[in-house]
């Protein structure tokens, strides 16, 4: 049986859609994953921004408006008297200065000691260096509460109670494990050839640390400082345990001054004081957030 070939019109393939039509078809399909991601980001932003916005708005309300109306409603009138009263009722300026001194002193110890320890463990290397690093990391799981009574007894014997050092030393000590981990993770990905070339040129370990390791670690330093500053600035437990006089109170302790007799609290002045104390950290974080993100990523990305 002889079969005849199909006509040319039948053999011709169906016309393919143009690239523009294909792109329109892809755009028309609902991207569920992208939509859910955007909704989740919006919800997270609202959950983070709304308390700060409410705090700022409430700090501008009058006492009568806040006490008699809905605390979550918009203010009927705005006033700056709450900020003036916040500085007059409490020793807010001294509290901010004390918190600044403690935060800077603790961060200085954290950065210097953390970098030196990580440099010795990760770059120089020595026998049992991995064990030493593991011991440092074990400090992350140690709760600060177990050190309060021993530290209080030791401070009372050597005369360190009611001093800046009584707060700076334990804050730096409990933050060292995480800083050593961040610095050592970053040092791990600095090319060894860089250190070898510096050694061939006659540079010793101290010169290598100062001229190579330190400049390359600036983003990690910013990350360590910002992460620890948040906890140190808001620390209450060490300051409440070791500070005995009004002149050395930090911000968390100073906010107790706004609680009056019989538990009566000047809420609008308290919110104004909180706004004043939160603003420095927010400004610093907004300015240095890119460096902080790069510092966090540097330990996970080689190069």
Structure keywords:
single chain; 303 residues; mainly alpha; MetI-like fold; globular; disordered C terminus; Carbohydrate ABC transporter permease; membrane; transport; transmembrane; cell membrane
Q: Would you give an account of this structure?
A:
The protein has 303 residues and is mostly helical. The chain has a domain at 90-298: MetI-like (MetI-like fold). 71% of the residues lie in helices and 0% in strands. It is built from 15 helices and no strands. Helix 12 runs antiparallel to helix 15 (267-298).
Secondary-structure topology with pairs:
Layout: H1 8-11, H2 19-28, H3 32-59, H4 63-68, H5 81-89, H6 92-124, H7 129-138, H8 148-158, H9 164-187, H10 192-200, H11 205-216, H12 218-233, H13 237-242, H14 251-254, H15 267-298
Helix pairs in contact: 3-15, 5-15, 6-7, 6-9, 6-12, 7-9, 9-12, 12-15
């Amino acid at each position: 049986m002889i079969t005849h070939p199909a006509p040319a019109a039948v053999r011709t393939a169906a016309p393919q859609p143009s690239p523009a039509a294909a792109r329109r078809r892809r755009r028309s399909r609902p991207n569920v994953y992208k939509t859910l991601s955007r909704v989740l980001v919006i919800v997270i932003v609202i959950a983070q921004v709304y308390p700060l916005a409410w705090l700022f708005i409430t700090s501008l309300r009058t006492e009568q408006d806040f006490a008699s109306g809905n605390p979550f409603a918009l203010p009927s009138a705005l006033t700056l008297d709450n900020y003036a009263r916040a500085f007059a009722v409490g020793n807010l300026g001294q509290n901010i200065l004390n918190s600044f001194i403690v935060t800077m002193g603790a961060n200085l110890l954290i950065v210097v000691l953390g970098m030196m320890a990580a440099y010795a463990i990760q770059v120089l290397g020595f026998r049992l260096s991995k064990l030493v690093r593991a011991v440092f990391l074990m400090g992350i799981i140690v709760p600060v509460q177990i050190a309060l009574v021993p530290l209080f007894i030791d401070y009372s014997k050597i005369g360190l109670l009611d001093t800046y050092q009584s707060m700076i030393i334990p804050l730096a000590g409990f933050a060292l494990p995480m800083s050593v981990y961040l610095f050592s993770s970053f040092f791990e990905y600095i090319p060894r050839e860089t250190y070898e070339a510096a050694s061939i040129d006659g540079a010793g370990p101290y010169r290598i640390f100062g001229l190579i390791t330190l400049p390359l670690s600036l983003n990690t330093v910013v990350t360590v400082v910002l992460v620890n500053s948040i906890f140190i600035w808001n620390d209450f437990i060490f300051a409440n345990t070791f500070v005995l006089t009004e002149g050395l109170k930090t911000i968390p302790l100073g906010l107790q001054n706004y609680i009056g007799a019989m538990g009566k609290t000047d809420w609008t002045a308290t919110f104004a004081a909180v706004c004043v104390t939160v603003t420095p950290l927010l400004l610093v974080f907004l300015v240095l957030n890119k460096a902080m993100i790069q510092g966090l990523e540097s330990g996970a990305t080689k190069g």
